[in-house]
Amino acid sequence: MANLVLTVVGDDRAGLVAALATVVSAHGGNWEQSRLAELAGTFAGIVEVSVPDVRSAELIEALGELDGLLKITTHPGSEPAAPAWRSLELNVLGNDHPGIVRDVTDVLNQHRLNIEKLATRIIEAPMSGGRLFEATVVARLPQEVDPEALTADLERLASEILVDISLVD
């Protein structure tokens, strides 16, 4: 079986996921996992599919026929190596200002964490009328990384940029 990772983008409208799923299924593919969202009127996502090796090229060609509805880029997937890591969840909440994502991901990168999922949003602050930035990060923590050093760096950062950062192990 071939694993393919598809990146998909198009003007948001009803039926996009169904059209993609129909093409994948019609070519013997199996929808493994996905992250799909509407952002600012644009539908975007990533989808992992598996397909019999002999039908891989056929599926890739058929996905091209969705051009005009969805722009799809196909990337070869691979089986991940046995992990020597543990999963870590990080939640961020604070008054919105530029640079929060950059600053948080810089610290994670310094400790060699691999971000698996990142979800962010802006919400209205209930009492102040301002805007709050909220993020959830799921990352892989390599076994050789010192969790106490990571925690200390995140606490220092939270103090510097005036946000709350909490770790869920």
From TrEMBL:
GO biological process terms held by the UniProt record: regulation of DNA-templated transcription
PROSITE patterns: ACT (PS51671)
Domain ACT: 5-77, 89-169
PANTHER family listed in its UniProt record: UPF0237 PROTEIN MJ1558 (PTHR34875:SF6)
This protein's name: Glycine cleavage system regulatory protein
Organism the protein comes from: Propionicimonas paludicola
